[in-house]
């Protein structure tokens, strides 16, 4: 049997498509408990022209996943960048955006926010408000786009990166993917039937090559983004507006909820910290507090 290295480009249940030397092998991991994910580099044994067996995982540089009280789900690995796609339609959820940013911060992966569907008239005000807070106040990069028209602005961002597109269903991730990689032929506009039916919650993220050194991963099926795996003590570091003032509270282990002498609370009262972001912070902390009871 020949052994070689490959890249996991997508998965279906216990099958992983592994690309190696320009060929794609349907692969399984015999007798291994390890779960593999898009972006993993693995060692494979070639069985025949179409099939291989995964024998080993090359250690990951990073791994992003989501989790709730009961389980966690790995999404992708070895990323250099997270493009968080949002749009005024069909159902913008600011908590989802905040969760994606915390995910990026906690994994030390650079996030970029894409506001898509700028061709819709209601996008102008929407984009202005979000730009004020997320770019001008918090310092995140924002790109405004109409993927239906073109995605040329993304070219420079995607070069020499492995980028994961995340966002709620219907924001335009697959449309962007098809603009960037026409051969991807990703299905668009197919939200209701398949992504939201309870039985089909498996995500089929797929990696596409833009060029020899740039990859794009389209990831469907995320409606919520649990962060149950975070350490409660570290969460404040993932909020730029809190991070910059840590150490100024009376208690060194202040969680910035109701402690006396809390600098963050003071700043909130002076409107120096956005109240919705702070409310999101509190929800996250209070959710993580329930972990202790298990
Ligand atoms: N008006 C408008 N519609 C868009 C744009 N980009 C995508 N759409 C539409 O939004 C719907 C969902 O797009 P899709 O790419 O499937 O979203 P995904 O679920 O994030 O992959 C489709 O009907 C697209 O045609 C855009 O820039 N403007
Ligand atoms: Mg899609
Ligand atoms: Zn505090």
TrEMBL record:
Residues 68-225 form the CP-type G domain. Its main location: cytoplasm. Keywords: Cytoplasm, GTP-binding, Hydrolase, Metal-binding, Nucleotide-binding, Ribosome biogenesis, RNA-binding, rRNA-binding, Zinc. Zn(2+) binds at residues 249, 254, 256, 262. Residues 77-223 form the EngC GTPase domain. It is found in: Cytoplasm. One of its GO terms (biological process) is ribosomal small subunit biogenesis. GTP binds at residues 116-119, 167-175. GO terms for molecular function: GTP binding; GTPase activity; metal ion binding; rRNA binding. Its cofactor is Zn(2+). InterPro entries: G_CP_dom (IPR030378), NA-bd_OB-fold (IPR012340), P-loop_NTPase (IPR027417), Ribosome_biogen_GTPase_RsgA (IPR004881), RsgA_GTPase_dom (IPR010914), RsgA_N (IPR031944). It comes from the Bacteria. GO terms for cellular component: cytoplasm. Monomer. Associates with 30S ribosomal subunit, binds 16S rRNA. Belongs to the TRAFAC class YlqF/YawG GTPase family. RsgA subfamily. One of several proteins that assist in the late maturation steps of the functional core of the 30S ribosomal subunit. Helps release RbfA from mature subunits. May play a role in the assembly of ribosomal proteins into the subunit. Circularly permuted GTPase that catalyzes slow GTP hydrolysis, GTPase activity is stimulated by the 30S ribosomal subunit. This is Small ribosomal subunit biogenesis GTPase RsgA. The lineage of its organism: Bacteria, Pseudomonadati, Pseudomonadota, Betaproteobacteria, Neisseriales.
């Amino acid at each position: 049997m020949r052994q070689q290295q490959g890249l996991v480009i997508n998965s279906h249940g216990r099958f992983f498509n592994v690309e190696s030397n320009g060929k794609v092998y349907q692969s399984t991991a015999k007798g291994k408990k390890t779960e593999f994910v898009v972006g993993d580099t693995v060692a494979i044994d070639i069985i025949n022209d179409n099939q291989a067996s995964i024998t080993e995982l090359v250690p990951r540089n990073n791994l992003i996943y989501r989790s709730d009280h009961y389980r966690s789900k790995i999404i992708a690995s070895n990323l250099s960048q997270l493009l968080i796609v949002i749009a005024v339609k069909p159902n913008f959820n600011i908590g989802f955006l905040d969760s994606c940013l915390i995910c990026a911060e906690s994994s030390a992966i650079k996030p970029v926010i894409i506001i898509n569907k700028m061709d819709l008239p209601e996008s102008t005000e929407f984009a202005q408000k979000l730009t004020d807070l997320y770019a001008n106040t918090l310092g995140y990069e924002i790109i405004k786009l109409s993927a239906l028209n073109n995605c040329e602005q993304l070219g420079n961002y995607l070069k020499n990166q492995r980028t994961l597109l995340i966002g709620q269903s219907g924001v335009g991730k697959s449309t962007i993917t098809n603009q960037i990689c026409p051969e991807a032929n990703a299905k668009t506009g197919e939200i209701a039937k398949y992504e939201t039916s309870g039985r089909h919650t498996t995500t089929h993220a797929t990696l596409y090559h833009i060029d020899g050194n740039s990859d794009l991963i389209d990831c469907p099926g995320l409606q919520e983004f649990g962060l149950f795996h975070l350490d409660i003590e570290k969460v404040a570091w993932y909020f730029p507006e809190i991070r910059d003032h840590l150490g100024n509270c009376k208690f060194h282990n202040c969680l910035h909820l109701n402690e006396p002498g809390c600098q963050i609370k003071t700043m909130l009262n002076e409107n120096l910290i956005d109240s919705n972001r702070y409310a999101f912070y509190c929800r996250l902390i209070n959710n993580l507090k329930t972990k202790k009871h298990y």
